[in-house]
Amino acid sequence: MIRLFAVASVLGTIAAKLTVQSADLVIRNGSIYTIDRVSTKAGALAVKNGIISFVGSNEGVAPYVGNETKVVDLHGRAAIPGLVDSHMHTLSGGLFLLKCDLNYQPLDLNAVLQHIQRCIDDETGKSDTDWVDVVNLDFPSLVTRSGSVGKVQLDKLNTSRPLSIRSSDYHTVLVNSRALELSDITASTPDPPNGKIERLPGSKEPSGVLQDQASGLLSGPPPPNEEQQVEAGRAALKALRQAGITTFQEAAAGADAQKTYKTIQTEGGLSSRGWFDYRIEAPPSLDGVPKLVSNAAALIKSLNDNSTIGPAPALKWQAIKAFVDGVITYPANTAALIDPYWSPVNGTNETVWRPDNSTLNKPYWSVEILARTLEGLFLQGIDAQLHVDGDLAVRIGLDAAAAFKKKYPDRKFKLGLAHDELSHQDDWARFAELEVDPIMSFQWSQLSSFYIPSTFQSLAEYRKRNLQAYAQIEKAGRPITYGSDWPVRR
Question: Rounded to whole angstroms, how far apart are CA atoms 356 and 189?
Answer without folding.
Answer: 25
